[in-house]
Write a sequence for this structure.
């Protein structure tokens, strides 16, 4: 059976992106594993690769995917709030303040990173 293994985003500002993701992902318990040959960085959780910020393999400019989003699950609404606030403090842009969505048990927030990639943080009540 297959399962989602990892996600990557491209960046045109790799030095800044590494600093952004070092701080932001630490809030989710995700830490740097190694620097990537593109100038980016690979991150892990519990010893397994789960996320990377990389220079595109084809050498072209990185662009955010329209409709693409990376989500991080947390155990409490307060953790979602902190993740979202930290992302904004690090230079990200707001795409949706933390809160419950449409009467669902999903407490979610949305932001974009320095290159415009969309990130979601959520908690399920």
């Amino acid at each position: 059976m297959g399962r989602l293994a990892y996600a990557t985003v491209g960046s045109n500002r790799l030095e800044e992106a590494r600093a952004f993701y070092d701080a932001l992902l630490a809030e989710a318990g995700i830490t740097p594993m190694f620097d990537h040959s593109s100038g980016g960085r690979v991150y892990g959780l519990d010893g397994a690769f789960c996320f990377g910020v990389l220079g595109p393999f084809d050498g072209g400019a990185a662009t955010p995917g329209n409709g693409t989003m990376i989500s991080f699950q947390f155990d409490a609404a307060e953790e979602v709030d902190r993740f979202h606030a930290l992302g904004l403090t690090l230079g990200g842009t707001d795409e949706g303040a933390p809160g419950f969505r449409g009467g669902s048990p999903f407490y979610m927030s949305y932001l974009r990173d320095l290159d415009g990639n969309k990130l979601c943080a959520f908690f399920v009540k």
Summary: The beta strands are 7-10, 31-35, 41-45, 48-54, 69-73, 93-100, 106-112, 118-124. The mean pLDDT is 95. Residues 7-56+68-124 form a domain with the 2,3-Dihydroxybiphenyl 1,2-Dioxygenase; domain 1 fold (CATH 3.10.180.10). The first strand starts at residue 7 and ends at 10.
